[in-house]
Amino acid sequence: EAQVTQNPRYLITVTGKKLTVTCSQNMNHEYMSWYRQDPGLGLRQIYYSMNVEVTDKGDVPEGYKVSRKEKRNFPLILESPSPNQTSLYFCASSPSPLRGEIQYFGPGTRLLVL
Amino acid sequence: TQLLEQSPQFLSIQEGENLTVYCNSSSVFSSLQWYRQEPGEGPVLLVTVVTGGEVKKLKRLTFQFGDARKDSSLHITAAQPGDTGLYLCAGDMNRDDKIIFGKGTRLHILP
Lengths: 114, 111
Fold this sequence. Notes:
- The complex is a heterodimer of chains A (114) and B (111).
- Chain A is an all-beta fold.
- In chain A, 0% of the residues lie in helices and 50% in strands.
- Chain A has no helices and 11 strands.
- In chain A, strand 5 (42-51) and strand 6 (54-57) form a beta hairpin.
- Chain A starts with a strand and ends with a strand.
- In chain A, 39% of the residues are buried.
- Chain B is 0% helix and 52% strand.
- Chain B has strands at residues 5-7, 10-14, 19-24, 31-37, 44-49, 55-58, 61-65, 71-76, 85-92, 100-101, 105-110.
- In chain B, the strands form 2 sheets. In chain B, strands 2, 4, 5, 9, 10 and 11 form a 6-stranded mixed β-sheet that branches. In chain B, strands 1-3-8-7-6 form a 5-stranded antiparallel β-sheet, with no helix packed on it.
- Chains A and B meet through strand 4, strand 5 and strand 10 of A and strand 4, strand 5, strand 9 and strand 10 of B.
């Protein structure tokens, strides 16, 4: 089954404690992306990756890192989480971001930073 | 600056009524997509429109892309409770690889 998986689905942590949210897709997609979704602000792109070893900042990259060592995986790293990073995070993948290609979204990771 | 403005933000109507939600921009997009998101889940793509003036139908849902490719609308005929959800539009401007999302229209259909 074609899918995007994220782990963990729920996470409660404390300020400053490094964490990683994993994202994996089994569709051989080149394009992967991380979003955060906040009430009143909608979905905002954090980082995206066009292919292995190619990553770029989205609209809200501050406080986040990503890596793309393999095509299927695109982890999101919070080196020193802060309460303003409490949010609902979605990973997505697509054959390409252009020409209206479909983006497949993961189920989401709800993060609470105390 | 919000590149994609969606209206209304919230809409609550009775089952059987028709409705239209809008996605507007002052910028030109090479394509626009509509997604529906249900609580606890990620957005799911409904349709992609690419050509200015394009109209696509998906059962009771009709999607239109403006002639100038700056706006889009979603019309639902005879709304049903199963249509309840958050409707998001998203576009790419073909000048970088970013995807821009609107803030969404939260639709509630009353039985």
